[in-house]
Every structure is written in structure tokens, then in C-alpha cells.
Amino acid sequence: MKMQAEVIREGELEKRSDSLFQLWKKKLVVLTKDSLSLFPDGQKRAKGKELGFGSILKVDCVERTGKYIYFTIVTKDRKEIDFRCPDQSCWNASITMALIDFQNKRAIQDFKSRQEMEQAAGTQERRLARAP
């Protein structure tokens, strides 16, 4: 059973569709420390799409117009997903900060894992060097 992650922010965001006409569709968005979940028609009852931060490369192309802030989430497989939000909502900043926090924690975990592996390898080498 999957545990509920702590919600950092929840609200409405508009996503540009992949269809030919590229219409803007409102989504209920739930931001956690590990992912961004998008629910159609503003309801969490429906099956949502989860963008795990492990699959996101960056938040890019931030552009401000009079009414909206436009931004793009780029995935590690180079897919671009376009969003817009009301100018004062700062969703792009919230997502960017959560992504940076996630990437920093992952980098620290990777560094510690490498250090532990190197220490274990060094201990093994010393044992072999002492063996008769």
C-alpha cells in the first residue's frame, strides 16, 4: 500500500493539451516532495497522472504576460509539458523549489552510497593485503 505523501501545495493549473488544437485545460494539481499529480476536471476522484520528480529534468521557459505565467516541465526523456497559471499564483516557483529539494536530497544519497561502497572496498582490500 502506497503511503500518502505530504502535500506542499494544491490548486488549479492549466495544461496545454497534446492535441492538434493545443487547448488549455484546467487541472487540479497536487504538489508533494516527490511528485506533481494532475487530476482532470478538478477532481481527485478521477485517476490522476503523476509526474515523479525522478523523471523530471527541469522547469524551463518561464514567461510572464499580463495575466499568466507560462512554463514548461522537461522530462528526462526530453518530453515538454506546457503549463500556465495566474500571474500571482507562482506555481512555477513552487514546483521549481520542490524539484531542487528533491534533486539535492537524491544527490546527497548518491554521494553517501558511493562513499560507503568505496569504504567497503577499501576495507576488503586491506583484509586481502594482510592475508598470508
Automatic annotation (TrEMBL):
<comment type="similarity">
    <text>Belongs to the PHLDA2 family.</text>
</comment>
<comment type="function">
    <text>Plays a role in regulating placenta growth. May act via its PH domain that competes with other PH domain-containing proteins, thereby preventing their binding to membrane lipids.</text>
</comment>
<keyword id="KW-0472">Membrane</keyword>
<dbReference type="GO" id="GO:0005737">
    <property type="term" value="C:cytoplasm"/>
</dbReference>
<protein>
    <recommendedName>
        <fullName>Pleckstrin homology-like domain family A member 2</fullName>
    </recommendedName>
</protein>
<dbReference type="InterPro" id="IPR011993">
    <property type="entry name" value="PH-like_dom_sf"/>
</dbReference>
<dbReference type="GO" id="GO:1901981">
    <property type="term" value="F:phosphatidylinositol phosphate binding"/>
</dbReference>
<keyword id="KW-0963">Cytoplasm</keyword>
<dbReference type="GO" id="GO:0043065">
    <property type="term" value="P:positive regulation of apoptotic process"/>
</dbReference>
<dbReference type="Pfam" id="PF00169">
    <property type="entry name" value="PH"/>
</dbReference>
<dbReference type="InterPro" id="IPR042832">
    <property type="entry name" value="PHLA1/2/3"/>
</dbReference>
<dbReference type="InterPro" id="IPR001849">
    <property type="entry name" value="PH_domain"/>
</dbReference>
<dbReference type="GO" id="GO:0016020">
    <property type="term" value="C:membrane"/>
</dbReference>
<feature type="domain" description="PH">
    <location>
        <begin position="7"/>
        <end position="102"/>
    </location>
</feature>
